[in-house]
Amino acid sequence: MTQAEFVVVANRLPVDKAGPGEGEDGWRRSPGGLVTALEPVMKETDGAWVGWPGQADLEVEPFDFDGTQLIPVALSADEIEKYYEGFSNDTIWPLYHDVIAAPRYRRVWWDSYVRVNRRFAEAAANAVKENGTVWVQDYQLQLVPKMLREMRPDLTIGYFHHIPFPAYGLYSQLPWRRLVLEGLLGADVIGFQRVADAGNFARAVRRLFRYETRAGRITVPGEDGTAHTALAKAFPISIAAETYMELAKKPEVQARAKEIREGLGNPKAILLGVDRLDYTKGIRHRLKAFGELLEDGRVTVDDVTLVQVASPSRERVEAYVQLRDEIELTVARINGDHDTFGHSAIRYLHQGYPREEMVALFLAADVMLVTALRDGMNLVAKEYVATRNDNRGVLVLSEFAGAADELGSALKVNPHDIDTLKDTIIQAIEMPEADQARRMRSMRKRVLEHDVKAWSDSFLAALDDARAAKERATR
Ligand code: GDG
Fold it and tell me: Which of 165, 362, 378, 451 to mutate to test the pocket of ligand 1 (most atoms within 8 A of CB)?
């Protein structure tokens, strides 16, 4: 195995094992945003990607895929249960999303998290050249930066946190709160979605360690009397805006959007929600508001349909099983009360779709509902905006999604405030086209200028600065 200049470490590899008949070499590129984001960087530099191949006990040798070296890290079924479903998705995920669901603190999960983080760190340390760069991704791997720094002090290390970082009052619940912060502080650059997340992180560091922090720069003492500077700063992630824009221009996608509208009985307004089925996304609040609007007679099923795509997610974690039951009961009740033979109140789809179909849905929707109770960024909001080349459509956006910091012209809502949410949905349905266009133009400008390439460029530039500062200091 040749060592690479630039290594990405993420929970998942950017590929999925292909089913029979798919993909020539048994793997196909997975559709995720991070994969698209890093594709250009991986191609430009001689890059490697360390990650789990997605199936239990799958031992695979490193292999080349599309010019990138992929380095699989195997996980046993027990580790998937404890490190991934347990500590990552049933401890950290709910804690960092403001305890919308109760986090479970289990010591055997933590032990597994430490072990698996060490395995990822070792794989990265073996993969990267002298003085190279490693970019660690997300909350499953918070301990990797420190582990890597100890194994390889020559490296420049970045970490990007895709989800929120909570206020100290919540963070302090974590039994391993010091160890997790130490893990993150091993990085030279620690990126967050919002300015508020970086602020929460810096405050937690001050409370627990009393390190000096100035304008996001934290002086972290090492064990040998030396110190390094870690920069904690917001780098809001984005989407491949051009790609979405181009997909939306395709005649077949536009024809499909028309077909979808017809299939729903050509209502006056289509409302759309697209989320992984997750308790952070505020799907219940959205359904509650829409159900009450029907109940109050402010909308009727002849005029307005809500399409809710809830893509299957984390189906072995108990909180998700329960959430699905609640949502499906609510949908069935609302539909039972209001459907006619010609029109349905809610078209609920517990399925994943190809990207073209998602874009067609965005084009078919008059109102996009993003009502997350807490969300790092929410890419769906940006995708909707990017596809609306016609400057039509209204985005209703929760102030608790990171995207709210950038998309100032959306109709902002507090999803907990059901009455205001209802009024905002009506306002969106009734918004004059000129007003829609004015708002959409300004949001599109932001998303097209600040696309995912701009995001990765700015993060990598910060890493370059960190490397240059280190070189100056050791000269
Ligand atoms: C985490 C953070 C942050 C969804 N269903 C289908 C489908 N999707 C796509 C969407 C979007 C992506 O999945 C979801 O991204 P989000 O940002 O909305 O949410 P999370 O999955 O929770 O992502 C989040 C993100 O990381 C990036 O940093 O923004 O805050 O929680 O791209 O379009 N795509 C297809 N079919 C589906 O059925 N093709």
Answer: 378
Residue with tokens 């027990």: 78
Residue spans per domain, the chain: 4-237+454-473, 241-449
pLDDT value of residue 36: 72
Are the C-beta atoms of residues 180 and 148 closer than 8 Å to each other?
A: no
Superfamily of domain 241-449: Glycogen Phosphorylase B; (3.40.50.2000)
Ligand 1 close to Cβ of residue 116 (< 6 A)? no
Residue 472: partners with Cβ closer than 8 Å, 6 or more residues away: none
Per-residue pLDDT of 313-356, as tens digits, reads 999 999 999 999 999 999 999 999 999 999 999 999 999 999 99
- Choose the residue to mutate in 161, 380, 407 for probing ligand 1, maximizing ligand atoms within 8 Å of C-beta: 380
Task: State mean pLDDT over 369-393.
Answer: 98
Output the CA 30–ligand 1 centroid distance in Å: 13
CA 162 / ligand 1 centre spacing (Å): 11
Separation CA 280–CA 273 (nearest Å): 13
Find out whether the beta carbon of 380 lies less than 6 Å from any atom of ligand 1: yes
pLDDT at 394: 98
For residue 201, the one-letter residue type is F
Distance 378 CA to ligand 1 centre (A): 7
Scan for tokens 């307004």, then name that residue: 269
For the full predicted model, state whether its pTM sits above 0.80. yes
CATH top-level class of 4-237+454-473: alpha beta
